[in-house]
Write a structure and sequence with these properties.
Elements lengths: L1 H19 L19 H15 L3 H8 L7 E4 L2 E4 L1 H11 L3 H4 L1 E11 L4 E11 L7 E12 L2 E9 L1
Parallel strand pairs: 1-6
Antiparallel strand pairs: 1-2, 3-4, 4-5, 5-6
Helix pairs in contact: 2-3
Length: about 160
C-alpha cells in the first residue's frame, strides 16, 4: 500500500512537471479550449458528474469517475485524503444538502497524455450557490488512468 502511494505521488509529480514544460500551440493550431486531445469518455464522465452533483447525488458523482480503491488520492484544502470512501465522506460532510452543493460547472483547460493509459487534466470548477451561500470556485488537476477499458480518476488535486 505504501509503495502504491509513493508510485501515485511520483506519477502525479511527473504529470505536473510535464505540463509545466509543454510548448504553446503552433500558429494556426486550435486553441486548447477548442480541442486539446481530451478523450471523449473523460469529457462525458465529467458531464455526468456535473449532472449527478446538480441533482444532489454525491454517490453518483463519485461512482461516475473516481477509482473505487483505498489508494485513490484526493488533495484539497484539508490536505491529503487517501481512499474512495474517505473522499466521498469528506464531500458528504462539506456539502450536507443540495443547497450547499449548488450548481457545479467544470471548465476543462488542458489535457496532457502521460502515456497510453494515463493523462493529466487541468481545469476550473465553479459552484453557484444562490443568495444564501457564497459561490465557490477553484482549479483542479486530475490524473486519469484507463483501467479495464474505463477511465478513472486516481488522483485529484482541487483547490
Amino acid at each position: 500500500m505504501f509503495k502504491m502511494r509513493i508510485a501515485l505521488a511520483c506519477l502525479y509529480a511527473t504529470g505536473v512537471l510535464s505540463s509545466c514544460t509543454s510548448s504553446s500551440p503552433s500558429p494556426g493550431a486550435l486553441s486548447p479550449e477548442v480541442s486539446f486531445g481530451l478523450p471523449v469518455e473523460i469529457e462525458q464522465r465529467m458531464e455526468r458528474q456535473e449532472s449527478a452533483w446538480n441533482s444532489g447525488d454525491i454517490g453518483a458523482f463519485m461512482q461516475e469517475a473516481y477509482w473505487p480503491n483505498d489508494s485513490m488520492l484526493f488533495i484539497g484544502k484539508r490536505g491529503m485524503t487517501w481512499g474512495y470512501d474517505a473522499t466521498r465522506d469528506n464531500y458528504l460532510d462539506s456539502y450536507p444538502n443540495i443547497g450547499a452543493m449548488g450548481t457545479l460547472k467544470f471548465d476543462n483547460k488542458h489535457w496532457k497524455s502521460l502515456g497510453s493509459h494515463h493523462g493529466l487534466l487541468v481545469g476550473e470548477w465553479l459552484l453557484i450557490r444562490g443568495d444564501s451561500l457564497e459561490d465557490l470556485s477553484g482549479y483542479y488537476s486530475l490524473i486519469w488512468e484507463e483501467m479495464n477499458g474505463r477511465w478513472v480518476i486516481i488522483a485529484d488535486h482541487s483547490s
